[in-house]
Amino acid sequence: MLHQLKNIDEAAALQNTYGSGIALRTSYSALISHLIPDRISLLKKFFSRTEERKHLAKVLAINYAQYSKPEQELIEKFGAVAFDKQMDIAEAIGENGWSLDMQNGKINFGEQVEFSFKILGSFSRTSNLWNWAWANEEAEKDDVSLNHAYEMKSFGEKQNVDFLKLGSFEAKNIDLHLIGLTASGLLKTTGYYIADYGAGAMVFTVQNNEIPKNTEKESERIITVFNQLISDFDVNQKLALKHYLAEKDYEIVEGRNKLTGIKGTNIIFAEFDNEHTLTKLNG
Questions:
Q1: pTM for the model
Q2: Quick check: 74 and 156 in contact, CB under 8 A?
């Protein structure tokens, strides 16, 4: 059953619902009552709050002022290319609000655009806690909607990355992008989506191999994306750009404080200071 929140009739029950850009925001109670069907489903089990849980996920404060080395390395490797993919997603969905078709595992934007999705987890603005989907006591490991959450957990355990292996931790809004971009990069998805419902947000990986990819003015895209990345995250900027250009299939010529990416007639040139901070970027 497709639940299209912006079109439902029970307006009185959605007094706390309001529009916000490309996402439809709604109160938590409205989300549970109207977005999630009455039938028993993993999504309802996961997002319905209960006092009956016997095994709570471990909670650790990870309110990073600056990200630690494992997190920083993931941002350097996947951050720019993930942001690049997010621009294609944003262009595809436009101003449409989101809705979930849980029977078919689709997240819809208007009548024409849909993505398959996998649940990563949820963030509560009341408690400032992130909760991984796999940490819910009723989560079933063979549920296909949780595949990516479990893959992230496995990677975190192998690489000893705290935010991937802990079921619950204190977080900030920016951490949702860290989670999304890491999943997008590791799992090679079309991207990620943060479905905001006011009191919190759900984070999904999304997949649609048919959405248009804007390849025009690629140099401008690279400059825009990279400047956005380094304004949001403290990373080794030279290394982050090197990873980004490699993912975009550029041949890389590297000097001590310089980096040049070449792909056909496209040339990206960057200069850095001795701390690997960007001082010039053009193409």
A1: 0.74
A2: no
Q: For residue 6, what is the DSSP state? A: G
Q: 257-277 pLDDT, tens per residue?
A: 999 999 999 999 999 999 898
Q: Whole-angstrom Cα distance, residue 33 to residue 48?
A: 10
User: CA dist 259 to 123, 185, 269, 272, Å?
Assistant: 38, 22, 6, 8
Secondary structure class of 136 (helix, strand, coil): coil
Residue (of 66, 43, 93, 22) closest to 178 by Cα position: 66
Token pair 């999943």 is at which residue? 183
- Listed in sequence order, the residues at least 6 apart from 26 whose beta carbon sits closer than 8 Å to its beta carbon are 5, 14, 16, 17, 18, 34, 35, 197, 198
d(Cα 175, Cα 86) in Å, to the nearest integer?
16
Residue identified by tokens 């909760």 is 131
Measured between alpha carbons, how far is 140 from 160 in angstroms, rounded to an integer? 23
